[in-house]
Design brief:
With about 130 residues, this protein is an all-beta fold. It is about 0% helix and about 50% strand. It contains no helices and eleven strands. The termini are far apart. The model has no long low-confidence stretch (mean pLDDT about 95).
Length: about 130
């Protein structure tokens, strides 16, 4: 079965960095769009970043643009999220998500309902 396993979360001071990893199994990784979402206590799940299966195009929420970088290693079936200049408002559970790539009508990368598989999440806490 498909599994997405996140790692790399933790506690960091404001201004610090973390690198999240998401290891995928049970799917043809190179044919999947991959995304990162986050959910803070009392808030809805929100889009963070995504990377296309086809050409590696990347997408970011405005709140993380210039600070976070998404990348993928198709040989390792892993997607990464490098997070720099972290702020207390980045504190949340971060989730990895996957959806089959398509050559048809583009679907918005920021819509969580378009993703089929989800990881269990990893906690990121940024102290001030």
């Amino acid at each position: 079965q498909v599994q997405l396993v996140e790692s790399g979360g933790g506690l960091v001071q404001a201004g610090g960095s973390l690198r999240l990893s998401c290891a995928a199994s049970g799917l043809i990784f190179r044919s999947y769009d991959m995304g990162w979402f986050r959910q803070a206590p009392g808030k809805e799940r929100e889009f963070v970043s995504a990377i296309s299966w086809s050409n590696g195009a990347t997408y970011y929420a405005d709140s993380v643009k210039g600070r976070f970088t998404i990348s993928r290693d198709n040989a390792e079936n892993t997607v990464y999220l490098q997070m720099n200049s972290l702020k207390p408002e980045d504190t949340a559970v971060y989730y990895c998500a996957a959806r089959p790539g398509t050559l048809g009508t583009p679907r918005p990368y920021y819509r969580p309902e378009t993703y089929v598989y989800w990881g269990q999440g990893t906690q990121v806490t940024v102290s001030s």
